[in-house]
Design brief:
Elements: E1 5-9, H1 14-25, E2 29-34, H2 50-60, E3 63-68, H3 74-88, E4 93-96, H4 116-141, E5 148-152, H5 157-160, H6 168-188, E6 194-199, H7 206-212, H8 235-247, E7 258-260, H9 261-268, H10 280-288
Parallel strand pairs: 1-2, 1-4, 2-3, 4-5, 5-6, 6-7
InterPro entries: NAD(P)-bd_dom_sf, SDR_fam
Pfam families: adh_short
Protein name: Short-chain dehydrogenase
Amino acid sequence: MRGKVALVAGATRGAGRQIAVQLGAAGATVYATGRSTRGHRSEMGRPETIEETADLVTAAGGTGIAVPVDHLVPEQVDGLVRRVDDEQGRLDVLVNDVWGGDLLTTWHKPVWEQPLEPGLRLLRLAIDTHIITSHFAMPLLIRRPGGLVVEVGDGTTAYNEKNYRSSVFYDLAKWSVNRLAFAWSSELAAHGATAVAVTPGWLRSEMMLEQFGVTEENWRDATSADPHFAMSESPAYVGRAIAALAVDPDRARWNGRSVSSGELAQTYSFTDIDGSRPDLWRYWVEVYDPGKPADVTGYR
């Protein structure tokens, strides 16, 4: 990806950070955006920053550029894209990874028992941000044929259409992200661009590791609390999935589809950082949902 430019919207931590890093490892110039900077934390109150992400991109071999952006503010997104155009004159990859809804989700309660304002805020963060960013970024992306748009969510369309995600707001958010990729695939096809929805599996994000009281180095200790955690994956796995898509000259074959990091690993032969290829969503359907004992044989 030398000479190519990527924008990862929502690159502060988790999947977004490693998507940016892995695109950088492939040689790209990566604009890493988010609301958490070294001088200001977002409402999530976490320590990770976009500057750290940009440094990791550069250390991986790319060029990382951190830009503070609230993707709910059209003027800020417009300014971001104008900056990318002024500095690079092109955009080859757009990754819509903005989320920020973890602390806003109320689980396992019907809508009438859920607080309304946090739920609506969740939807705005998960959906409106992606639409606003695409509105401003896609005209630059389609200036050259071959562009790629990735919508990052949770669960493939095939899984989400059959399984309620335990909160109406969360369910709608994750369904909508996949549908956006389908919509973009139709709108971009005439311009030679590709849109794909990509989901990680059980992501060992910073927050998830803290929840289990482990680190990336000893994450397997968490399987004593939940044996199914043996199927979890590092954020680098989905980052490698999207980097593989970005360098595939035949990526148009994925246009409009909803796929997982595990599925893409089978096609592109990359692995997670431990050398395995976890296929979480197949495992979820065949082992977890039927209530079978944890057994990763044949799935990792």
